[in-house]
Amino acid sequence: MARRRQIYEGKAKILYEGPEPGTLIQYFKDDATAFNAQKKGTISGKGVLNNRISEHIFTLLGSIGVPTHFIRRLNMREQLIRQVEIIPIEVVVRNVAAGTLSKRLGIEEGTQLPRTIVEYYYKDDALGDPLISEEHIACFGWASQDEMHDITDMAIRVNDFMCGLFAGIGIRLVDFKLEFGRIWDNDYGRVILADEISPDGCRLWDMETNEKLDKDRFRRDLGGEVEAYQEVARRLGLLPEDGENAVLDLESHRKRRGR
Fold this sequence. Notes:
Belongs to the SAICAR synthetase family. Pfam families: SAICAR_synt (PF01259). It is a single chain. The chain has about 260 residues and is an alpha+beta fold. The protein has a single domain (about 5-235), classed as ATP-grasp fold, B domain (D-amino Acid Aminotransferase, Chain A, domain 1, 2-Layer Sandwich), CATH 3.30.470.20. Helices cover about 30% and strands about 30% of the residues. The chain has 7 helices and 13 strands. The protein has helices spanning about 45-65, 100-105, 135-140, 145-165, 215-220, 225-235, 250-255; strands spanning about 5-10, 15, 25-30, 30-35, 40, 70-75, 80, 85-95, 110-120, 130, 170-185, 190-195, 200-205. Strands 8, 9, 10, 11, 12 and 13 form a 6-stranded antiparallel beta sheet that branches. Strands 1-2-3-7-6 form a 5-stranded antiparallel beta sheet. β9 and β10 form a beta hairpin. α1 packs parallel to α6. The protein is globular, with a radius of gyration of 18 Å. The model has no long low-confidence stretch (mean pLDDT about 90).
Protein backbone atom coordinates (compact mmCIF):
# COMPACT_ATOMS: atom_id res chain seq x y z
CA MET A 1 0.00 0.00 0.00
CA ALA A 2 1.36 3.43 -0.96
CA ARG A 3 2.39 5.53 1.99
CA ARG A 4 -0.13 8.25 2.76
CA ARG A 5 0.09 11.57 4.58
CA GLN A 6 1.00 11.21 8.24
CA ILE A 7 -1.65 12.58 10.60
CA TYR A 8 -0.13 11.84 14.00
CA GLU A 9 2.73 9.93 15.62
CA GLY A 10 2.50 8.61 19.16
CA LYS A 11 4.78 6.51 21.32
CA ALA A 12 3.72 3.18 19.84
CA LYS A 13 1.76 3.96 16.67
CA ILE A 14 1.58 6.25 13.65
CA LEU A 15 -1.69 7.36 12.06
CA TYR A 16 -1.91 8.03 8.32
CA GLU A 17 -4.80 9.32 6.26
CA GLY A 18 -7.06 6.51 5.10
CA PRO A 19 -8.22 5.57 1.61
CA GLU A 20 -11.72 6.91 2.26
CA PRO A 21 -13.08 9.92 4.18
CA GLY A 22 -13.54 9.12 7.85
CA THR A 23 -10.85 6.43 7.89
CA LEU A 24 -7.23 6.24 9.04
CA ILE A 25 -4.43 3.72 8.74
CA GLN A 26 -2.93 2.78 12.10
CA TYR A 27 0.71 1.60 11.94
CA PHE A 28 2.17 -0.32 14.89
CA LYS A 29 5.79 0.49 15.76
CA ASP A 30 8.39 -1.57 17.61
CA ASP A 31 9.21 1.40 19.85
CA ALA A 32 8.71 0.76 23.56
CA THR A 33 8.31 3.44 26.21
CA ALA A 34 7.61 3.45 29.93
CA PHE A 35 7.11 5.97 32.72
CA ASN A 36 5.63 8.55 30.32
CA ALA A 37 8.45 8.05 27.80
CA GLN A 38 11.22 8.59 30.36
CA LYS A 39 12.42 5.09 29.44
CA LYS A 40 12.69 4.26 25.75
CA GLY A 41 13.73 1.20 23.79
CA THR A 42 12.77 -1.19 21.01
CA ILE A 43 11.12 -4.60 21.16
CA SER A 44 11.76 -6.28 17.81
CA GLY A 45 8.53 -7.50 16.21
CA LYS A 46 6.30 -5.93 18.89
CA GLY A 47 4.32 -3.96 16.33
CA VAL A 48 3.47 -7.07 14.34
CA LEU A 49 2.34 -8.95 17.43
CA ASN A 50 0.32 -6.04 18.81
CA ASN A 51 -1.38 -5.56 15.45
CA ARG A 52 -2.49 -9.21 15.39
CA ILE A 53 -3.51 -9.34 19.07
CA SER A 54 -5.44 -6.06 18.92
CA GLU A 55 -7.17 -7.13 15.70
CA HIS A 56 -8.21 -10.41 17.32
CA ILE A 57 -9.58 -8.82 20.50
CA PHE A 58 -11.35 -5.94 18.72
CA THR A 59 -12.97 -8.40 16.30
CA LEU A 60 -14.24 -10.52 19.21
CA LEU A 61 -15.52 -7.43 21.03
CA GLY A 62 -17.32 -6.31 17.88
CA SER A 63 -19.00 -9.72 17.66
CA ILE A 64 -20.57 -9.20 21.12
CA GLY A 65 -21.82 -5.72 20.24
CA VAL A 66 -19.05 -3.46 21.59
CA PRO A 67 -18.64 -0.63 19.02
CA THR A 68 -14.99 -0.07 18.03
CA HIS A 69 -12.95 1.92 15.54
CA PHE A 70 -11.47 -1.25 14.01
CA ILE A 71 -12.41 -2.04 10.38
CA ARG A 72 -9.84 -4.60 9.21
CA ARG A 73 -6.15 -5.48 9.31
CA LEU A 74 -4.30 -4.46 6.16
CA ASN A 75 -0.91 -6.15 6.58
CA MET A 76 1.64 -7.14 9.22
CA ARG A 77 1.81 -3.71 10.86
CA GLU A 78 -1.21 -1.75 9.67
CA GLN A 79 -4.93 -1.77 10.18
CA LEU A 80 -7.75 0.33 8.77
CA ILE A 81 -9.72 2.18 11.44
CA ARG A 82 -12.51 4.72 11.72
CA GLN A 83 -11.36 8.26 12.38
CA VAL A 84 -12.58 9.39 15.78
CA GLU A 85 -12.33 12.43 17.99
CA ILE A 86 -10.31 11.03 20.87
CA ILE A 87 -11.72 11.75 24.33
CA PRO A 88 -8.72 12.91 26.43
CA ILE A 89 -9.24 10.30 29.14
CA GLU A 90 -7.41 7.04 29.71
CA VAL A 91 -9.66 4.49 31.38
CA VAL A 92 -7.84 1.93 33.53
CA VAL A 93 -9.71 -1.16 34.70
CA ARG A 94 -8.13 -2.98 37.66
CA ASN A 95 -8.91 -6.49 38.89
CA VAL A 96 -5.71 -7.12 40.84
CA ALA A 97 -3.48 -4.67 42.73
CA ALA A 98 -0.37 -3.84 40.70
CA GLY A 99 1.73 -0.94 39.43
CA THR A 100 0.73 2.54 40.54
CA LEU A 101 -2.25 1.30 42.55
CA SER A 102 0.02 -0.80 44.77
CA LYS A 103 2.44 2.11 45.22
CA ARG A 104 -0.25 4.71 45.79
CA LEU A 105 -2.23 2.76 48.39
CA GLY A 106 0.43 0.45 49.80
CA ILE A 107 -1.39 -2.71 48.71
CA GLU A 108 0.79 -5.73 48.02
CA GLU A 109 1.10 -6.39 44.31
CA GLY A 110 -0.91 -9.44 43.28
CA THR A 111 -3.70 -8.88 45.80
CA GLN A 112 -7.08 -9.73 44.30
CA LEU A 113 -9.32 -6.66 44.62
CA PRO A 114 -12.69 -7.14 46.35
CA ARG A 115 -14.31 -5.52 43.32
CA THR A 116 -13.19 -4.21 39.96
CA ILE A 117 -11.99 -0.60 40.03
CA VAL A 118 -12.37 1.79 37.09
CA GLU A 119 -9.99 4.78 37.18
CA TYR A 120 -9.67 7.80 34.90
CA TYR A 121 -6.48 9.60 33.89
CA TYR A 122 -6.15 12.84 31.94
CA LYS A 123 -4.26 12.21 28.70
CA ASP A 124 -1.36 14.66 28.88
CA ASP A 125 2.23 13.41 28.69
CA ALA A 126 3.62 16.73 29.93
CA LEU A 127 1.58 16.37 33.13
CA GLY A 128 2.31 12.67 33.52
CA ASP A 129 -1.28 11.58 32.77
CA PRO A 130 -2.65 12.53 36.23
CA LEU A 131 -5.38 10.56 38.00
CA ILE A 132 -8.70 12.42 37.79
CA SER A 133 -12.26 11.98 39.04
CA GLU A 134 -15.60 12.18 37.26
CA GLU A 135 -15.95 15.62 38.90
CA HIS A 136 -12.88 16.84 36.98
CA ILE A 137 -14.24 15.37 33.75
CA ALA A 138 -17.59 17.13 34.18
CA CYS A 139 -16.02 20.40 35.34
CA PHE A 140 -13.70 20.73 32.34
CA GLY A 141 -16.12 19.29 29.79
CA TRP A 142 -13.88 16.45 28.64
CA ALA A 143 -16.92 14.18 28.34
CA SER A 144 -20.63 14.50 29.07
CA GLN A 145 -22.43 12.55 31.78
CA ASP A 146 -24.10 10.36 29.15
CA GLU A 147 -20.75 9.69 27.51
CA MET A 148 -19.21 8.73 30.85
CA HIS A 149 -22.06 6.28 31.47
CA ASP A 150 -21.37 4.72 28.05
CA ILE A 151 -17.60 4.65 28.67
CA THR A 152 -17.90 3.04 32.09
CA ASP A 153 -20.48 0.50 30.91
CA MET A 154 -18.28 -0.46 27.95
CA ALA A 155 -15.18 -0.69 30.13
CA ILE A 156 -16.91 -3.12 32.50
CA ARG A 157 -18.28 -5.13 29.59
CA VAL A 158 -14.86 -5.34 27.96
CA ASN A 159 -13.36 -6.40 31.28
CA ASP A 160 -15.92 -9.17 31.79
CA PHE A 161 -15.29 -10.51 28.30
CA MET A 162 -11.51 -10.27 28.44
CA CYS A 163 -11.26 -11.85 31.90
CA GLY A 164 -13.01 -14.91 30.48
CA LEU A 165 -11.01 -14.86 27.24
CA PHE A 166 -7.65 -14.79 29.01
CA ALA A 167 -8.67 -17.15 31.83
CA GLY A 168 -9.49 -19.70 29.13
CA ILE A 169 -5.84 -19.67 28.02
CA GLY A 170 -4.33 -19.63 31.50
CA ILE A 171 -3.71 -15.89 31.79
CA ARG A 172 -4.82 -13.60 34.62
CA LEU A 173 -6.03 -10.19 33.45
CA VAL A 174 -4.57 -7.94 36.17
CA ASP A 175 -5.45 -4.55 34.68
CA PHE A 176 -5.61 -2.77 31.34
CA LYS A 177 -6.00 0.63 29.68
CA LEU A 178 -8.71 1.69 27.25
CA GLU A 179 -9.24 4.79 25.14
CA PHE A 180 -12.48 5.99 23.60
CA GLY A 181 -13.42 8.37 20.80
CA ARG A 182 -16.44 10.06 19.31
CA ILE A 183 -17.79 9.51 15.83
CA TRP A 184 -20.23 12.05 14.50
CA ASP A 185 -23.43 11.72 12.51
CA ASN A 186 -24.33 15.35 11.82
CA ASP A 187 -24.74 16.80 15.35
CA TYR A 188 -25.04 13.43 17.06
CA GLY A 189 -21.88 12.02 18.64
CA ARG A 190 -21.46 8.38 19.62
CA VAL A 191 -18.71 6.94 21.81
CA ILE A 192 -16.78 3.92 20.54
CA LEU A 193 -13.71 1.99 21.69
CA ALA A 194 -10.48 3.21 20.05
CA ASP A 195 -6.67 2.83 20.20
CA GLU A 196 -5.55 -0.80 20.78
CA ILE A 197 -5.71 -3.69 23.23
CA SER A 198 -2.41 -5.54 23.48
CA PRO A 199 0.29 -6.51 26.00
CA ASP A 200 1.47 -2.89 25.74
CA GLY A 201 -1.59 -1.71 27.65
CA CYS A 202 -2.55 -4.79 29.68
CA ARG A 203 -0.98 -6.55 32.63
CA LEU A 204 -1.16 -10.25 31.85
CA TRP A 205 0.17 -12.86 34.28
CA ASP A 206 0.43 -16.59 33.83
CA MET A 207 -2.15 -18.09 36.17
CA GLU A 208 0.14 -20.83 37.49
CA THR A 209 3.50 -19.06 37.75
CA ASN A 210 2.53 -15.34 37.87
CA GLU A 211 5.10 -14.80 35.10
CA LYS A 212 4.55 -11.42 33.49
CA LEU A 213 3.54 -11.59 29.81
CA ASP A 214 3.33 -7.86 29.10
CA LYS A 215 5.25 -4.57 28.94
CA ASP A 216 6.21 -4.82 32.61
CA ARG A 217 9.05 -7.01 31.36
CA PHE A 218 10.41 -3.86 29.66
CA ARG A 219 9.48 -1.47 32.48
CA ARG A 220 11.25 -3.58 35.09
CA ASP A 221 14.22 -4.76 33.00
CA LEU A 222 13.13 -8.39 33.25
CA GLY A 223 14.08 -9.21 29.65
CA GLY A 224 12.25 -11.69 27.42
CA GLU A 225 9.80 -9.10 26.10
CA VAL A 226 9.48 -10.63 22.63
CA GLU A 227 8.99 -14.12 24.04
CA ALA A 228 6.27 -12.86 26.40
CA TYR A 229 4.33 -11.12 23.62
CA GLN A 230 4.74 -14.20 21.42
CA GLU A 231 3.40 -16.40 24.22
CA VAL A 232 0.23 -14.29 24.47
CA ALA A 233 -0.25 -14.47 20.69
CA ARG A 234 0.44 -18.21 20.68
CA ARG A 235 -2.11 -18.92 23.42
CA LEU A 236 -4.68 -16.83 21.55
CA GLY A 237 -4.08 -19.08 18.51
CA LEU A 238 -2.45 -16.32 16.46
CA LEU A 239 1.00 -17.94 16.20
CA PRO A 240 1.97 -21.55 15.55
CA GLU A 241 3.18 -23.51 18.56
CA ASP A 242 6.71 -23.16 17.18
CA GLY A 243 6.61 -19.36 17.25
CA GLU A 244 10.35 -19.12 16.60
CA ASN A 245 9.61 -19.42 12.87
CA ALA A 246 7.03 -16.66 12.85
CA VAL A 247 7.76 -13.68 10.59
CA LEU A 248 7.70 -10.57 12.80
CA ASP A 249 9.84 -8.26 10.69
CA LEU A 250 9.33 -8.51 6.94
CA GLU A 251 12.51 -6.63 6.01
CA SER A 252 14.71 -8.88 8.14
CA HIS A 253 12.88 -11.93 6.81
CA ARG A 254 13.61 -10.87 3.21
CA LYS A 255 17.28 -10.26 4.03
CA ARG A 256 17.57 -13.73 5.54
CA ARG A 257 16.11 -15.19 2.36
CA GLY A 258 18.44 -13.12 0.20
CA ARG A 259 15.74 -11.06 -1.50
